[in-house]
Amino acid sequence: MIMGAASLSAVAQNTQSGYFVEDYTYRFQMNPAYGNSKGFVSMPGIGNLNVSVAGNLHLTDILYNVNGQTTTFLNPNISVSEAMSGFSEKNRLGFGLKLGVLSFGFKGFHGYNTVSINVKTSLETHLPKSIFSLLKEGLSNREYSIENTRAHARAYAEIALGHSHDINSEWRVGATAKVLVGAGDISADLAQAKLNLGTDNWIVQSNGTINASVKGLTYDHKLNSDTGHEYVSGVDIDSPGVNGMGFAVDLGAIYKPSFLPDLTFSAAIIDLGFMKWKNNMLASTNGVQIFETNKYTFSVDDDAPNSFDNEKDRIKDDLSALYELNDMGDQGGRTTGIGTTFNIGAEYTFPYYRKLTFGLLNTTRIQGEYSWTDFRLSANVAPVKAFDASANIALGTYGFSFGWLANVHCPGFNLFLGMDHTVGKLSKQFVPLSSNAQFNLGLNFLF
Predict the structure, then answer these.
(1) Do 127 and 133 touch, CB atoms closer than 8 A?
(2) What is the dihedral of CA 289, 295, 298, 304, to 10 degrees?
(3) Are 441 and 417 in contact (CB under 8 A)?
(4) What is the helix, strand, coil percentage profile of the chain, to 5?
(5) pTM of this prediction?
(6) Which of 442, 315, 323 is CA-nearest to residue 15?
(7) Strands 263-277 and 334-337
(8) Which pLDDT score, from 0 to 100, does residue 425 have?
């Protein structure tokens, strides 16, 4: 059950490529101190659509070409050393979606104000290298330790109210308050799975849990006819809906020192908050389960308590306890974080062509096992009034990437398109060979 949840698949939900693009409409979502030169109203549903996939587990790590045929890393013609070289100690893969339902911004109250309604969903997984080693090598080593195999899924909506204004000629500050409405949060954790193949004794240990906070969710059950134990076999969701409430804030500042007129510094904290879920449906192995082969002795006497048939049944029953999860029921409400992002930037205006700037941005997301960071160097240009763009390179947790954003802002109209991680080579089935890809599209009306 745990491994099934882990196969689902922390990713960025804002476009860092637009951070230094002055007329990019949604800069305020990366730093609430930013304000726009004009008011705007988004096209419902596509004002700011952001889809991303991120990870260090790529299709090229799983699939190989052998004698003109596509095969997996398990193929015996692929050596163990070659196959294992493609995996990291911590293999991660995630999917994120941010849908701007409706947003608008306007000047007033001595600054710039924004109102946004967004829907956010994410699926993330963390797989240790030892899983792939066990699959490739089989039981060739004496000891295997598969720990911290995790998967997480979350969906919620946010209603955000933001304001920014100048403090003086050098400083500008901003803040956004967010009310969060949760649909669900599911975490699966295989905290421990150890296999020790000793000379005289084999020891297997397991410890796994699933925490599910979804309205109307219950676990399906199946009866183990041999042991009489009822275990979790799946989930059922009846009448899903709002299942949690929360609150978060964004805080930001921009500093333009008067003694360095070509430099601008900025910093922001995004999504500093929490979600309170109404329930927590827990499924668990009920602590560490241990299986040891030296517990079993076999007698040639068919009538003995430890006859071959009886001991064989005992082994089968005890092995099932390693992976059969118990339905522990509703544990009551629980509180979780939503992941906090830090943006720190510096921008330099080219003195000989002031429509060109260079920016350096560090983005770091703090979310436990799904934390990540990247450094992005960009060139940003606004050659004409109605168009500006950015081209950038980044290096971080998920490796090297190339990003860009093109932004058209004619009178009454704004359209932008960009990628933080440009899609590279594709397979014959048009699947990206790299697991890093991000796409941002928006259509807005200006006033």
Answers:
(1) no
(2) -90
(3) yes
(4) 10, 55, 30
(5) 0.86
(6) 442
(7) antiparallel
(8) 75
